[in-house]
Write a structure and sequence with these properties.
- The complex is a heterodimer of chains A (236) and B (171).
- By secondary structure, chain A is α+β, with helices and mostly antiparallel strands.
- Chain A contains six helices and seven strands, in the order βααααββββαββα.
- Helices cover 31% and strands 17% of the residues of chain A.
- A two-stranded antiparallel ribbon of chain A has the order 2-5. Chain A has a two-stranded antiparallel ribbon with strand order 3-4. In chain A, strands 6-7 form a two-stranded antiparallel sheet.
- The termini of chain A are far apart.
- By secondary structure, chain B is an all-alpha fold.
- Classes of the chains: A alpha+beta (236), B mainly alpha (171).
- Chain A binds chain B through residues 1-6, 8-10, 12-20, 24-25, 27-29, 31-32, 35, 37-43, and chain B through 7-10, 13-14, 17-18, 21-23, 25-26, 29-30, 39, 43, 46-47, 50-51, 97-103, 105, 108, 110-111, 113-114, 117, 128, 132-133, 160, 163-164, 167.
- Strand 1 (2-4) of chain A pairs antiparallel with strand 1 (99-101) of chain B, so a sheet runs across the interface.
Chain lengths: 236, 171
């Protein structure tokens, strides 16, 4: 009887089996240990292949590196050192000051002035100042170009605001930040209300509505970030 | 035991190794021509099984997944050694079935049959095992071994001829 050679070999080869011996597992276990694969009792970084001292040293080194990186590139550049500076508080108090009001008829009338805001240091308040840890020069003397632009813009807005109170036929207002100035009146303009012979003096209104006094340019609080070359002293 | 493998429990690994060593070794010995190479393939397969146990989704049988692992490992081992050059003149040869006399061959021991298979050239042995024992088609074999389908046909035909001749000598 003839049989297909494929079926014959399939049957015979499936009968082949090999017995297990304990030394085979010892060899396999060594291979597992070498490859560092699995094993609760051993293997892996935290499984026992390294000593406790090595693990602790590794962890500390890693933490030092991480904190160093954070200090140099992250949050180390800004820190609240809670330096207290004193700042006066402005409080409104009634002033016993008489003011002189100039009218068209040049009459001098003395009357009590309305409540006026004067600066008086009544209480000192401590505020926290944020400071750059790494040596950063404080912003003191010369304003930057952005501060200068900010100052000029405020000035322009103030002049426009003051011009809105002035009759249109009095000519353009020349007003320089609260100082009294003489304004020549155009003689071509016919206006009875205006005394042409005398130049009119105007002053900055004491407390106009919605008037906000010009503030100083905002001081840069946070230090400008410096590069690694600056910190190493290689670059100014 | 599979749960133990997923926990990387060493005792479970030992039990699995002990239980399936014979089966895995019989597969490894078909693809390798000596005991040491087969054992290296089997241990590498077990290492893959232990480390990549999470890849076993639990759909098929665990034994089948292990068999595929050892076959693939054996094929990688064979491919790491260069295949011998094949005479491509016979590639278009018609693939014919080969028959043998069952009465005479039936008395041959299974281990002797295994030794016969081990005498085949690497690529020929691999194609014969994949086609006859694992049930792969020529297209799949060509993809696994990185050869053409024609070459796979030739290796199978060559294996049948060689084995028939060796069986005659053995009988």
């Amino acid at each position: 009887m003839k049989i297909n050679i494929d079926d014959f070999f399939r049957t015979k080869l499936n009968e082949v089996n090999f017995d297990f011996k304990p030394e085979y597992w010892d060899e396999m276990e060594k291979k597992i240990e070498q490859e560092g694969a699995g094993g609760v009792s051993g293997g892996g970084f935290f499984g026992g292949s390294l000593s406790i001292f090595s693990k602790i040293a590794f962890i500390f080194t890693t933490l030092i590196i991480i904190f160093g990186l954070i200090y140099f590139f992250g949050g180390g550049s800004q820190q609240d050192d809670s330096e207290n500076i004193e700042q006066p508080v402005v409080k409104a108090v009634p002033a016993n000051v008489n003011t002189t009001v100039k009218t068209e008829k040049a009459e001098k009338v003395t009357e009590p002035a309305p409540e006026k805001v004067i600066a008086k240091t009544t209480k000192r308040k401590t505020v926290k100042k944020r400071r750059h840890l790494v040596s950063v020069e404080p912003y003191t003397e010369k304003p930057s170009i952005t501060d200068e632009i900010d100052y000029r813009l405020r000035k322009e807005v103030e002049i426009r605001f003051m011009s809105s109170f002035r009759p249109y036929n009095l000519g353009p207002l020349k007003y320089d930040m609260g100082q009294e100035v003489d304004i020549p009146v155009d003689p071509a303009v016919n206006n009875d209300d205006v005394n042409v012979s005398e130049p009119k003096k105007i002053t900055k209104p004491d407390n106009p509505k919605d008037y906000k006094p010009m503030q100083k340019p905002i001081k840069r609080v946070f230090g400008k970030k410096k590069g690694i070359l600056y910190r190493l002293g290689l670059r100014k | 035991m599979i749960k133990g493998l997923k926990r990387q429990d060493r005792k479970s690994q030992e039990l699995i190794y002990q239980k399936y060593f014979g089966l895995m070794m019989s597969i490894g010995m078909r693809y390798c021509n000596n005991w040491d190479d087969a054992k290296e393939v089997v241990n590498s397969s077990f290492l893959k099984i232990f480390t990549k146990i999470d890849n076993y989704g639990g759909k098929g049988s665990f034994e089948g997944w292990m068999k595929r692992t050892v076959v693939n490992t054996a094929l990688d081992f064979i491919k790491s050694r260069k295949f011998e050059n094949v005479g491509f003149d016979d590639i278009n040869t018609y693939e014919e079935d080969v028959y043998i006399e069952n009465e005479a061959a039936g008395n041959i021991d299974a281990e002797d049959i295994l030794k016969l298979v081990q005498t085949l050239p690497d690529a020929t042995r691999a194609v014969f095992n994949l086609y006859v024992l694992e049930g792969y088609k020529h297209k799949e074999i060509s993809e696994k071994l990185g050869i053409s389908e024609g070459t796979s046909h030739w290796h199978l035909l060559n294996a049948r001829r060689l084995l028939k001749d060796k069986l005659k000598n053995l009988i």
